[in-house]
Recover the amino acids of this structure.
């Protein structure tokens, strides 16, 4: 009996199906974990909805030219919401799991690291879609916003793209920021960045010298892409915005890669 | 692999068993490992091997290189020079990892997942995991599988981490301070599980600060300090080689005389009782009894593993 335990030949891991099951379960439990963490789920869903109800619904009959303010704000708060869910879900989550040694235990296990990262990204996307769906429901029911079927689908598509893009920023922040400071630091980045990109208030209502900062911010480009679905975008070409968002994502991923490897050397 | 059988205590004595275990091919080796972090040398030409069916305790003071050794074997870090082999391959390969389980010191496990969620997820990593009921029985988690991690007591949390280490039915298990925070019963139960794993041919590498635990469980102890192996052997050998035997009695013999006896390493007086430490007890006792007819309250004992350990790591 002493030898039979390890005499069995190394079992062929039933590759594809087995790996798919790992990805599925990793994602399921990541999502469940986030949903059950009331401090996360209530605030990432609650804040954008609350702000939109307070400021957006009040403008249900307000127009600036042919821009319906409530609809404009729907685009802005949708971005605000999905970015918050991603930065906090991934940024704080990954940082604290690293600091606690939990990530190390998972890396010692046969779990593929790609499954872990995929789960985090997919859960962020799921939260983004939930937040934007609730905002759309609120906007169309109480804000007098009219949304065509095409616009709706495009909005959800942009939500998915935005979540994935900002997931890369969440990853970089998790690698850079010490775990217990993470929520505070992420707030210090996320809130001013959202404000300066015109997510809460259109840029043209802000002092002129602030306008020049916006194009440097990825949140600005995402919101312009979102608003252009309604035809409310600015004068820059869509291609510029797409390139900016893509460039930002690649930059975040590249820096994450570098920092991760430097940490590995010194681990 | 069917259910783990409960193996009774009567096993061949560790020394004899050690002989047979050591002759088998090693399943994991570190060969001439040097690991540097910048200017610090964590491991200095360290070599060790693990064989099937043995429980090995890795002992050493803080900073000795125990965690680095375990991390190398788990494939979490790579050596600066030297080779690591686990089941004949690189420990970083996913296939090797499916045969390895680890219990590490984790400050915080995902709090909002239930015990069964954690088990479900970890089991999915392995091709042939143990059945859930079996894992719950081994780790004594029956009845609490629906509790959130945040609702578990300290001892229950430790047992969940143990469950995660064994859920994949691994052939090599790393346990880092496994019984911290457990009460006596839970500790003894865990020891019993470790013994039964070893009896099935699995290998356990244990790091612990409870020397009593190493003494009770290990077939072999490896003592490391400052990145090097300074002693290796069964618990009895370690105790014998570094401290010898202790002779305690009341005698009128003088210190000068006692120091001249063969193999005497140390003589201490403690409230009328003299403690003589010598590499071999019998010649010294024979001589003392010959010279002093009033000698009384004679006791001969092996030093505790703690004393042996302290003596080894003092230099």
């Amino acid at each position: 009996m002493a030898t039979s335990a390890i005499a069995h030949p190394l079992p062929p891991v039933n590759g594809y199906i087995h790996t798919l099951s790992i990805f599925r379960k990793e994602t399921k439990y990541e999502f469940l974990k986030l949903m059950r963490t009331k401090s996360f789920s209530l605030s990432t869903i609650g804040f954008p909805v609350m702000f939109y109800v307070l400021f957006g619904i009040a403008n249900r009959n307000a127009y600036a030219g042919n821009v319906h303010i409530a609809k404009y704000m729907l685009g802005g708060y949708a971005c605000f919401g999905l970015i918050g869910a991603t930065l906090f879900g991934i940024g704080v989550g990954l940082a604290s799991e690293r600091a606690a040694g939990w990530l190390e235990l998972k890396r010692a296990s046969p779990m593929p690291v790609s499954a872990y990262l995929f789960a985090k990204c997919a859960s962020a996307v799921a939260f983004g879609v939930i937040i934007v769906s609730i905002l759309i429901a609120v906007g169309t029911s109480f804000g007098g916003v009219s949304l065509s079927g095409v616009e709706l689908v495009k909005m959800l598509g942009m939500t998915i793209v935005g979540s994935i893009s900002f997931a890369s920023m969440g990853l970089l922040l998790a690698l850079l920021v010490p775990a217990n400071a993470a929520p505070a630091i992420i707030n210090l980045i996320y809130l001013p960045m959202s404000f300066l990109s015109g997510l809460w208030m259109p840029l043209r209502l802000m002092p002129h010298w602030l306008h020049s900062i916006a194009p440097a911010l990825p949140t600005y480009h995402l919101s312009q892409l979102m608003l252009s679905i309604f035809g409310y975008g600015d004068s820059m070409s869509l291609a510029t915005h797409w390139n900016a968002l893509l460039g930002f994502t690649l930059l975040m991923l590249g820096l994450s890669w570098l920092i991760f490897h430097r940490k590995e050397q010194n681990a | 692999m069917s259910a783990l059988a409960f193996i009774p205590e009567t096993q061949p004595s560790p020394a004899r068993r050690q002989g047979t275990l050591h002759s088998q091919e090693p399943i994991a080796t570190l060969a001439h490992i040097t690991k540097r972090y910048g200017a610090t040398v964590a491991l200095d030409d360290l070599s060790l091997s693990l064989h099937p069916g043995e429980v090995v305790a890795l002992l050493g003071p803080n900073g000795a290189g125990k965690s680095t050794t375990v991390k190398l074997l788990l494939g979490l870090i790579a050596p600066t020079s030297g080779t690591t082999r686990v089941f004949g391959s690189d420990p970083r390969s996913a296939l090797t990892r499916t045969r390895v389980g680890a219990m590490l010191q984790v400050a915080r496990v995902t709090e909002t997942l239930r015990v069964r969620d954690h088990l479900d997820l970890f089991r999915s990593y392995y091709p042939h995991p143990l059945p859930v009921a079996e894992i719950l029985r081994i780790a004594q988690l029956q009845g609490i599988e629906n509790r959130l991690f945040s609702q578990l007591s300290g001892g229950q949390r430790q047992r969940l981490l143990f469950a995660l280490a064994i859920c994949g039915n691994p052939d090599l298990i790393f346990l880092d301070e496994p019984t911290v925070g457990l009460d006596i019963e839970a500790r003894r139960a865990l020891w019993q599980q470790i013994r039964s794993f070893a009896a099935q041919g699995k290998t356990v590498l244990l790091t612990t600060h409870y020397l009593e635990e190493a003494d009770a469980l290990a077939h072999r102890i490896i003592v490391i300090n400052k990145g090097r192996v300074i002693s290796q052997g069964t618990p009895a050998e370690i105790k014998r080689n570094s401290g010898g035997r202790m002779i305690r009695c009341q005698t009128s013999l003088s210190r000068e005389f006692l120091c001249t006896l063969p193999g005497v390493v140390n003589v201490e007086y403690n409230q009328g009782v003299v403690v003589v430490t010598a590499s071999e007890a019998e010649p010294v006792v024979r001589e003392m009894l010959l010279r002093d007819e009033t000698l009384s309250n004679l006791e001969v004992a092996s030093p505790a593993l703690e004393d042996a350990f302290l003596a080894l790591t003092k230099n």
In short: The interface with chain B takes residues 1-6, 8, 10-11, 13-14, 18, 21-22, 25-26, 29, 32-33, 36-37, 96-97, 99-102, 104-105, 107-112, 264, 266-267 of chain A (CB under 8 Å). Confidence is low (pLDDT under 50) at residues 1-11 of chain A. The beta strands of chain A are 63-64, 67-68.
